[in-house]
Amino acid sequence: MEVLDTLYNEVVGFLGISQAWEILQSGNYSTFKTYDGVVSLIYPIIPLLLILELILGLIYKKPDTKVYKINFLIYIFNRFIGRFIAIAMITICIGLFQKYAPFQTEMTWYWFVYAYIIWEFAHFLYHYWGHKVRLFWCLHSTHHAPENMNLSVTHAHFFLEAPYADTIRTTVCILLGVQPELLFLIMFIDGTYGAFIHIGENVIKDARFGPLNKIMLTPSHHRVHHARNPLYMDTNFCNLLNIWDHVFGTYQEEEKEVKIEYGITREMDSGNFMDVYFGEFVALFRDVIKAPGIKNKMLYIFMPPGWSHIGDHKTSKVTRAAYFKDNPTYITQNKWKLTKNLKSEV
């Protein structure tokens, strides 16, 4: 019975319906008009869309079985590990850094706009470093390994990536005056939308969303972010507001002529859990062992993926610069930002 209860609780927890179910059981339906009630109705949306996406995939005969299988295993593994490792980095960072903030925001619309822009900046930093520092890429690469995009990719994360992300995002927001209550509200909104932008073509074929594609980050932008095509590599790091991608020159729209190829550039078996989850750590370990001298060993850890001590660099900047040289059609107004610091990276 205990096993069945555990299984039941896991299913209910995954579907996000526990809070709504408790309200229904209480009979106090007016609770749905409160903040907690609204949240309880929003939580199940992404899991239910995931199930719909899987069903439509079977109907369209595009099931992405391998992707769902591996991401399901990752979800189960992370849930198991999470029972033994609980790292409350958000709480720790708030306690450590809030006293150093020069001011505190309030729950008003204008402070909400300020806080969200700061949150996006913090998210940009964590996400950018996750692609540009090889050790952090080892944490993040699991999320990029799937060779198709669907909502199950939301659950494809190395278990230590969340503490890394929470440390950076919370620290930046708290130091810049975002009060915890406002931070938690933004995290809920951002987390929900951050899951939605992984929606696959089985549900939404063209995810540009018309004019919205110009003013916010759409699932189309995030599909570009997950691509390994040279044109698309290491772009669109934001989550909802793509303001910082425009500022730092990492913005890239989906081009109809360039079909997205999902996955990572390393040769791997995307149907192998161990390779998806630990493969980048193994590759980094091998490079560190083979590298001559302490300096080169350290550089492999902290330089971007693709850096080589012999100078045969295959970083995203090198790859993109070569692509732009051969395909001048796709040279954008931000190309100079992408190639300006090439020497400093390689």
UniProtKB/TrEMBL annotation:
Q: Which residues form a coiled coil?
A: none
Q: Where in the cell is it found?
A: Endomembrane system
Cellular component GO terms held in the UniProt record? endomembrane system; membrane
> Which InterPro entries does the record cross-reference, listed alphabetically?
Fatty_acid_hydroxylase, Sterol_desaturase/TMEM195
Biological process (GO) annotations held by this record are: lipid biosynthetic process; membrane lipid metabolic process
* Fatty acid hydroxylase domain residues: 112-250
GO MF entry, a single one: glyceryl-ether monooxygenase activity
Which residue windows are transmembrane per the record? Answer: 41-60, 72-97, 109-129
Q: Which UniProt keywords apply?
A: Lipid metabolism, Membrane, Oxidoreductase, Transmembrane, Transmembrane helix
The way this protein sits in the membrane is described as:
Multi-pass membrane protein
> Would you tell me the protein name for this molecule?
Sterol desaturase/sphingolipid hydroxylase, fatty acid hydroxylase superfamily
* Organism for this UniProt entry: Maribacter ulvicola
